Amino acid sequence: MNGNVPVLPNPTPEAFMRKAIRLAEQAARDGEVPVGAVVVRAGRIIAQAHNQVERLKDGTAHAEMIALTIAAAAVGDWRLYDCEMYVTKEPCAMCAGAMVNCRLGKLFFGCHDQRMGAAGGALAITNYPGMLHRVETVGGILADECLLIVQEFFRQRRREEDDADSFGA
Fold first, then answer.
1. Is residue 64 among the annotated active site residues?
2. Which of 124, 118, 42, 23 is nearest to 80 (CA)?
3. Distance, CA of 90 to CA of 86 (rounded, Å)
4. Is the pTM of this model over 0.85?
5. Going by fewer Cβ within 10 Å, which terminus of the chain is more open, N or C?
6. Which one of 25, 54, 64, 145 is the catalytic residue?
């Protein structure tokens, strides 16, 4: 965890999501799918991460997974009952499952993902009946801003692919 994380002056879901958005923008600059995540405990950010799949050559290096690991170290326990995560895009099945397994208290996410989302979009892992834990989930926080980052990233990626194709690459 970065010990230099400032205390936000107005700790609202929108303020925490704006921090996650800045992390997603960093991911995009690094050539990663732009997803950012922060974990909050008692109104303070205790973990933050962005996707690092390409950098680490690890398909599990999603922002949420990294943030959960950092948060568990900060708390000193794998159980994160009193923590909240703010993530720019609805988590995939792997990340949603990790949130359930870590006993995350609450999830706030930005844009929905009807194709791959597992917090109510394509699947509902965070609130699946019969699980040992259910993660309270609120979607749609600054959804338009979060969606725009993802859309622009993939637009740019398609332009780059088209440019490469036009040069016979």
1. yes
2. 42
3. 10
4. yes
5. C
6. 64
